[in-house]
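ugh ok fine here u go
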Amino acid sequence: MKSPNAVGLLVAILIVVALLVGAGVWLVRSVTNALEPKLSVGCTATVGAAGYHMAIEQARNAALIADISVQRGMPARAASIALATAMQESALRNIDYGDRDSVGLFQQRPSQDWGTVEQIMDPVYSANAFYNVLAQVPDYVNLPINDAAQIVQRSGFPEAYAQHEPLSRAFASALTGQTPGGLNCTLAAATIIGSPDAVTAGAQEAMGPLAVLVPSTAPSDAGTVMTFEVPEAHGWMLAHWALANANELGIVQISHAGQTWDRNDNQEGHNVGWQPSETGTGTQVMVTLAAPIA
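structure:
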């Protein structure tokens, strides 16, 4: 028979061993979790092997800025300049504060004749105001992005725009439709029931006079399917606009030119991007809206 002291010692040893084993399991799990890829909600523009990331709000603003350049008949270079500018000035967020009286995406100043505060806080107005000045810059297409942006903005930090050039060029290429399928977004599950009226209004704002027709709608098991007929040259522009706005508008699927982006395949650690499908021709963009939960 063992003495009480021996039993106590044995119990103490077993407790220590159990604690060490538990600590080891915790450590292994911690290391494993650290090494596993995390869900990064947001949007990525890919050019070649390089990918550049934006938050959802940033991508949504970037899409509108880029689309307005196309509306105006300006080249993708103009969108690159505008996106680099807005990224530096406001981190592509429509903020109501800034240096002195600067506000908005481009931090334009009412005191410098950019418009009223209310006007500048309208992203459509502020983007057009930027492009109005950029269009007057001689040979801006062949200038370095930083230099063209600085001529428009007259910033106290004249070299600051250059750091955003790779990101701005990648997003401009995708959002103007120059890179088919070049934009992918990872989103959480839809929490907003899509509204056809809201999607139509947003698409018409983004595309402007580029012949966006009133879409046809049809119910499906997944939700309402909207089919936009658009000029083939602007199909990917609209498809990428829909993707950049999918979170806000309750969009769960987009199809164009034989490619489909599905929200279920691009959330919770899954990120497959656009996949081949038999849905959506070169002149159609099909948008599926989240259905009400039964």
